[in-house]
TrEMBL record:
Protein name in the entry: Methyl esterase
Organism from which the protein derives: Trema orientale
PANTHER family membership: METHYLESTERASE 10, METHYLESTERASE FAMILY MEMBER
BP GO annotations: jasmonic acid metabolic process; salicylic acid metabolic process
Listed Gene3D superfamilies: alpha/beta hydrolase
InterPro entries, per the entry: AB_hydrolase_fold, MES/HNL
Gene Ontology molecular functions: methyl indole-3-acetate esterase activity; methyl jasmonate esterase activity; methyl salicylate esterase activity
SUPFAM superfamilies per UniProt: alpha/beta-Hydrolases
Amino acid sequence: MESLMDCKFTFDYGPENPPTSAIFGPNYMAAKMYQCCQTEDLELGKMMLRPSGLFLEDLAKESLLTEEKFGTVKRVFVVCEKDGLFDEDFQRWLIENSQTKEVELILGADHMVMLSKPQEFFLSLQKIVQKHC
């Protein structure tokens, strides 16, 4: 729980049940999400922050990534890596369990790739579109 720093959780069904929503704390955002961004981006992110539902009950029921539910959309996973600051095991699990067709890598980007490496992100998306359309 120490890694969650100042994040706050809501337990709508009581503290003995899983959390139902979360909101990132400002210290967590600065250290884990916007660490490669300008101060202005962090401050804007903090201003726009809202609680987010976790939907843990729904996620536990069945896989949401099925051919019936998503059709034939080709999935491309964009891996953003900066100085090894990413959860390689979790990203590998996501790639293997989401029927990913291709993986793009953006080096030097943090979690907020659209802020830390916007040009590289745009070029990756453009490459994906050109390849698959």
